[in-house]
Amino acid sequence: MSSTTPETAHKVLAESLGQIVLVRLRGGKSLRGRLKSYDMHLNIVLDDAEEELEDGTRRRLGTVLIRGENVVMLSPIQ
Amino acid sequence: MSSTTPETAHKVLAESLGQIVLVRLRGGKSLRGRLKSYDMHLNIVLDDAEEELEDGTRRRLGTVLIRGENVVMLSPIQ
Amino acid sequence: MSSTTPETAHKVLAESLGQIVLVRLRGGKSLRGRLKSYDMHLNIVLDDAEEELEDGTRRRLGTVLIRGENVVMLSPIQ
Amino acid sequence: MSSTTPETAHKVLAESLGQIVLVRLRGGKSLRGRLKSYDMHLNIVLDDAEEELEDGTRRRLGTVLIRGENVVMLSPIQ
Amino acid sequence: MSSTTPETAHKVLAESLGQIVLVRLRGGKSLRGRLKSYDMHLNIVLDDAEEELEDGTRRRLGTVLIRGENVVMLSPIQ
Amino acid sequence: MSSTTPETAHKVLAESLGQIVLVRLRGGKSLRGRLKSYDMHLNIVLDDAEEELEDGTRRRLGTVLIRGENVVMLSPIQ
Amino acid sequence: MSSTTPETAHKVLAESLGQIVLVRLRGGKSLRGRLKSYDMHLNIVLDDAEEELEDGTRRRLGTVLIRGENVVMLSPIQ
Question: What are the residue boundaries of the Sm domain, all occurrences included (chains A, B, C, D, E, F, G) (predicted)?
Answer without folding.
Answer: 8-78
